[in-house]
Design brief:
Elements lengths: L1 H4 L10 E4 L7 H12 L8 H12 L7 H10 L1 E3 L5 E3 L19 H5 L5 E6 L7 H10 L4 E5 L11 H11 L1
Parallel strand pairs: 1-4, 4-5
Antiparallel strand pairs: 2-3
Helix pairs in contact: 3-4
Length: 171
């Protein structure tokens, strides 16, 4: 956030879209994410077995057409050392915590954002809870909030009813 509120990007960022994340992440959600990305990832012999796994894992992200599931499957897989299909993400997405480093409070930098903000919120999200959304709205009263009722973390921005408001907001 500090790059948005100060530094070289202060006057370059004219609008900010946030997809189902806030200045804090509940401990349970963070533990779930850490467990998922730091554990051994399952392998699948076929593309469609892997796709079924993704549907189970990411179904909470909201509705997808068969073509959208195929696209998501194609763009999120890799082969493991055994030649099976598995998830493909940056293994450094979660770094080991260092207890000597002080926790960064992101509420203050968030409150300093001056550009218009559009917040996407999956109503079923455990990462961005209603409590956090309400706190964000208190901090940024002009922030627009678009809640996706049948969705958890995080709304898929490939869906027209999700990306149309973004395009309108950014126009």
């Amino acid at each position: 956030m500090s790059l948005i509120t100060s530094g070289p990007y202060k006057n370059r960022i004219k609008r900010l879209v946030i997809n189902d994340i806030g200045p804090e992440i509940p401990a349970d959600a963070l533990a779930r994410i850490i467990d998922y990305v730091s554990g051994e990832q399952p392998g699948f012999d076929t593309f469609f077995e892997y796709q079924d796994y993704l549907k189970e894992l990411y179904g909470i992200w909201g509705q997808r057409s068969p073509d959208q599931w195929i696209r998501m499957t194609e763009t999120s897989l890799r082969r493991n050392n055994q030649g099976q299909f598995t998830v493909h993400f940056d293994p450094d997405i979660i770094q080991k915590s260092d207890e000597t480093v002080p926790v960064i409070d992101l509420w203050e930098p968030f409150s300093q954002v001056t550009c218009p903000i559009l917040l996407f919120h999956g109503l079923l999200s455990d990462v961005l809870t209603l409590k956090i959304v309400k706190q964000m709205k208190l901090s940024q009263p002009n922030m627009m909030v678009l809640t996706i009722n049948d969705c958890g973390h995080a709304p898929g921005l490939h869906i027209p009813q999700h990306n149309k408001p973004i395009l309108k907001f950014l126009a």
